[in-house]
Amino acid sequence: MKIYHVPSLQDNYSYLIVDESTKEGAVVDPVEPEKVIKAANSHGVNLKLVLTTHHHGDHARGNEKIKQLVPGIRVYGGSMDNVKGCTDKVENGGKVSLGADINILSLHTPCHTKGHISYYVTGKEEEQPAVFTGDTLFIAGCGKFFKGTAEQMYQSLCVTLGSLPKPTRVYCGHEYAVKNLQFAMTIEPDNLKIQKKLTWAQNQNHAGQPTTPSTIEEEMETNPFMRVGLPEIQEKVGCKSPVEALRELRKLKDKWMG
């Protein structure tokens, strides 16, 4: 399994997932279809699937165009999310295969939108799995609670995604790592892993390189929104439960000027 970044718009990422034995490919959130098709052609990939994380225009508005440019391509999206161009609605636990070796599991991760889907992708046994988290889980952050509650985001982040194997690679929808890690430093100023990752992310940005993928393990170590079960995080934000702490953290982040 190969995964390629396709930078789009100002700070978005689309991703090209390739089954190496068949050269069949899937693309996550092809907001600028021409860029995705160019990337696929450069790697000799036959595009078969679109995996849409949620209905927002900066993730789904390329779906109709890619259907015109790649006749027969299947467009997957959450059944509760009214995704443009969707041909196949998916529920939590829905499974799709790609090529000979890739399996894709749909995970309902609501809060940013009601029907947000993250896609957990596995290849050959020796390969690290990957999860495409759209705007639910970012490096050191999470999406805004546009259509949901802190309870839903806790379930999505800390239970659904947090229970994935620790080596799982995390590919999110936007390049927000530096700002998110700077905010994380205000919550845990003595966390050396956050400090180290912030320096690394700044260097990546300066070099014009992406900060994805992270891993589930790294997020559990550096992402305050996934660390709300820790008493020290709860104490920092004046709360006594993980859900309350998550709610308060999101409020703080929404007000934070950086």
Automatic annotation (TrEMBL):
- Cofactor(s), names only, from the UniProt record: Zn(2+); Fe(3+); Fe(2+)
Q: What are the residue boundaries of the Metallo-beta-lactamase domain, all occurrences included?
A: 11-174
Report the record's Gene Ontology biological process terms: methylglyoxal catabolic process to D-lactate via S-lactoyl-glutathione
Pathway it belongs to?
Secondary metabolite metabolism; methylglyoxal degradation; (R)-lactate from methylglyoxal: step 2/2
Reaction(s) catalysed by this chain's protein: an S-(2-hydroxyacyl)glutathione + H2O = a 2-hydroxy carboxylate + glutathione + H(+)
Write down what this protein is called. Answer: hydroxyacylglutathione hydrolase
Q: Does the keyword Zinc apply?
A: yes
